[in-house]
């Protein structure tokens, strides 16, 4: 695959994955087209050697794998489907001063300021009963702009450019209409495909920016989009796996809830990956040997050195956009990389002539974490944390390079067994 085509398809994927549910649906379609068979956790698995499979949990996390005839360890690739966002509260409707607003709760460590004055839409999962009284659920996406969080005019806040703080409870509720008769339940039910939905039971809905992903820069150097952290990696690992031979022991896991610590049934701290590997192995002895012989590459974004804030980086570990994949190291195991895993990854990069950078946070600054240490702790699998250099991480619109994702794709292709 050529880099230009790779990036064109990446932009489409970023626009489709407006929630973890929608990102998972998009990955399922790609995998199905590539010959993967869907299986379900609730069923008894009867796997055929030489075939390829995928399974989801909560429809927001997905694991896909080959099932080769030759037993052995897997080259595993991990990423996460969620991104910082504003989630709708269960009873969101607020009527105030002639406007209808919907109450939201910040999800993850989002930058709040960039959410103001954006054209926002809403998407996610709704549960309801139909005319027969049966429990149903569907995934909806309004697609068009339906809301905005309007800024307070500078005339009414003279200190806005000097010392502005945001109260997540009082300042972030999006304005959706001035029509006082708006029926929230009827509005949501009007978006489902069921002909006669009767009653709304529950919803998991998030706002998102309707501005499309784009290639920007004087020479097209950058990709600007929402949810680069971490749909960028989800796209890369899905494409690597789709091009794996059925006899290559290769697996990908894209988990939900990384942005809030991964502590859920569908997060990396849950049992999903462990359960799948045990079912693949058949017995504890085989499972233990599989884990010992495997390598997990945890793929997430990395902080590129910002030209306006270069002092936020260690000068010897300041990755640049479009200068290659970043190996992330932390002395206190906030990243799971060890010299053994790093050497395997760097060796693969050398063989395909792709550049590598290294990131170590300043010793006087804190360090975020990833699914890497969480998965390594739960499974005991050799794990490496890598990332793609990014500006504005956790903003409503982030910035990455047009070269780096394709570079990671090439390295992971070479790293495959």
Mean of residue pLDDT values: 94
What is the strand content? 25-35%
- Shape descriptor reads globular
The CATH topology of the largest domain corresponds to Aminopeptidase
In N-to-C order, the SSE pattern is HHEEEEEEEEEHEEEHEHHEEHEHEEH
Please give the largest β-sheet: 12 strands, mixed
CATH superfamily of the largest domain, by name, is Zn peptidases
Measure the end-to-end span: 20 Å
* Number of distinct helices: 9
CATH class type of the largest domain = Alpha Beta
**How many domain units?**
2
Structural class: alpha+beta
Give the fraction of residues assigned to helices: 10-25%
Task: Please state the second-level CATH architecture of the largest domain.
Answer: 3-Layer(aba) Sandwich
Uncertain regions spanning at least 5 consecutive residues:
none
- Whole-number radius of gyration? 22 Å
Number of strands: 18
Q: How would you characterize this protein structure?
A:
The chain is of the alpha+beta class and 417 residues long. The protein has two domains: 271 residues, 3-Layer(aba) Sandwich (Aminopeptidase); 125 residues, Aminopeptidase i, Domain 2 (Roll). The protein contains nine helices and 18 strands. Strands 1, 2, 3, 4, 11, 12, 13, 14, 15, 16, 17 and 18 form a twelve-stranded mixed beta sheet that branches. A six-stranded antiparallel beta sheet has the order 8-7-10-5-6-9. The longest helix has 15 residues. The mean pLDDT is 94.
């Amino acid at each position: 695959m050529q880099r230009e085509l790779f990036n064109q398809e990446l932009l489409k994927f970023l626009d489709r994955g407006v929630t973890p549910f929608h990102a998972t649906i998009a990955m399922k379609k790609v995998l199905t087209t590539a010959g993967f068979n869907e299986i379900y956790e609730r069923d008894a698995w009867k796997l055929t050697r030489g075939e390829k499979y995928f399974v989801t949990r909560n429809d927001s996390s997905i694991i896909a794998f080959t099932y080769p005839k030759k037993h052995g360890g897997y080259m595993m690739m991990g990423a996460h489907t969620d991104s910082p966002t504003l989630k709708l509260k269960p009873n969101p409707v607020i009527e105030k001063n002639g406007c209808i607003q919907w109450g939201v709760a910040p999800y993850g460590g989002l930058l709040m300021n960039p959410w103001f004055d954006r054209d926002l839409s809403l998407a996610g999962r709704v549960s309801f009963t139909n005319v027969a009284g049966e429990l149903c659920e569907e995934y909806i996406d309004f697609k068009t702009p339906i809301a905005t969080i309007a800024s307070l005019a500078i005339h009414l806040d003279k200190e806005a450019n000097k010392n502005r703080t945001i109260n997540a409870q009082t300042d972030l509720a999006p304005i959706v209409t001035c029509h006082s008769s708006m029926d929230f339940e009827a509005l949501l039910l009007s978006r489902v495909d069921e002909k006669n939905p009767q009653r709304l039971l529950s919803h998991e809905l998030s706002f998102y920016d309707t501005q499309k992903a784009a290639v920007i820069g004087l020479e097209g150097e950058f990709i600007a989009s929402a949810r680069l952290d971490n749909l960028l990696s989800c796209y890369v690992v899905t494409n690597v796996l789709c091009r794996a031979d059925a006899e290559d022991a290769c697996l990908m896991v894209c988990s939900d809830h990384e942005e809030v610590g991964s502590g859920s049934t569908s997060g990396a701290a849950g049992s999903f990956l462990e359960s799948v590997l045990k079912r693949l192995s058949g017995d504890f002895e085989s499972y233990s040997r599989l884990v010992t012989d495997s390598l997990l590459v945890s793929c997430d974004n990395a902080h590129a050195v910002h030209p306006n804030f270069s002092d936020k980086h260690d000068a010897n570990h300041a990755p640049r956009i479009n200068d290659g994949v970043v190996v992330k190291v932390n002395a206190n195991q906030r990243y799971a990389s060890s010299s053994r895993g790093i050497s395997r990854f760097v060796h693969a990069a050398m063989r395909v002539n792709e550049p590598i950078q290294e990131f170590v946070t300043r010793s006087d600054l804190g360090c975020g974490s990833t699914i890497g240490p969480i998965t390594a702790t739960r499974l005991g699998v050799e794990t490496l944390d890598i990332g793609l250099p990014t500006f504005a991480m956790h903003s409503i619109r982030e910035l990455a390079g047009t070269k780096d994702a394709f570079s990671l794709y090439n390295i992971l292709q070479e790293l495959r067994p």
